[in-house]
Amino acid sequence: MFQERTGVGLDVHARSIVAAGIDAVTGELHRRRLVPQPDVVLDWLKDLPGPVAVSYEAGPTGYELYRRLTAAGYRCVIAAPSRLVRPSSDRVKTDARDAMLLARLLRMDELVAVRVPTPEQESARDLVRAREDTRAELMAARHRVSKLLLRHGHLYSGGATWTGKHHHWLGTISFPSRGTQAAYEAAREELDFALARRNRLESAIIEVANDSEFSSTTRNLACLRGISTLTAFALAVEIGDWDRFTGSSIGAYLGLVPSEYSSGESRRQGGITKSGNTHVRRLLIESAWHHKAVYRVGTVLQQRWDQAPPAARTRAHLGNQRLHRRWKNFSARSKPHNVANVAIARELAGWCWSLATLET
After folding, report:
1. How far apart are CA 148 and CA 327, in angstroms?
2. Is the pTM of this model over 0.85?
3. Where do the structural domains in the chain lie, given as residue ranges?
4. What CATH number was assigned to the domain covering residues 6-107?
5. How far apart are CA 106 and CA 7, in angstroms?
6. Strand boundaries in 47-101, DSSP class E
7. pLDDT tens digits along 281-304
């Protein structure tokens, strides 16, 4: 509940901060445009009637201001931008109006706060997202190389692509045209750099996953089919605090539930909402495909089981069996594969929650 005397809203940008404060006793408004430095913000807050609570929207400026305000003794709420209550007729959007809106919603306790990671958790998240960005760059580089070759009549037919044998084949290709050869060498160079960068980041992730606060959760999640150490660590880092969810609510948080358009007695459902963390949703959807094949505990899965506690192995085994049965039921009912896979991913999210919150 809002118990402070003054509620402050900050519209934070890279080069400026517009501040608005409302004194709950006198009703006085305090406005100021500040430079984006925590010390300057703290100096301005000291002149306001206390106690003071502060709010600003989550955004690209990160959490450093939040940490400085909290360390100075101020209650700070970082609001989820997508959950701000704004009148439908309010179409004038300025920095000053946004700051005042935040101050008013803070006083009314109408702000939905985001979870603020610790510096260690933010560091792990930076590592995971760097690997995700590199993965996308590697896919784009491979696409450019393969399509350049295809335009000039070179098609690989020696088996799986992007293996050692395939890379050796790429090195044997040359073009008589100097321009095409230069373009091909540049594309190959970008491919090699992206591959080396991805491998380096994956090695760093495995090293951190084996010795960090996420190690236990990572080992538990890796007991499920389709979730390797890299995927498990990414899920553990991106979700962070699993206790804020339940087995059924985590699917809605990740946008894996159907959208709904209802009015009166009419109820229509559409595609999934696709809200929440896009990275986690993609990982779960990709992992769900692995549960379609016949369930057997292979060598790789057994190795991951050996690193986890018995309770996690037992629960994961039940989850793997259940998800495979669900795939069989969907196939028997001739459900479209994409629709079935999203449903499996939604249930897989619940099993991940169960393992992440498991007390061992």
Report:
1. 39
2. yes
3. 6-107, 119-213, 218-356
4. 3.30.420
5. 6
6. 52-57, 75-79
7. 999 999 999 999 999 999 999 999
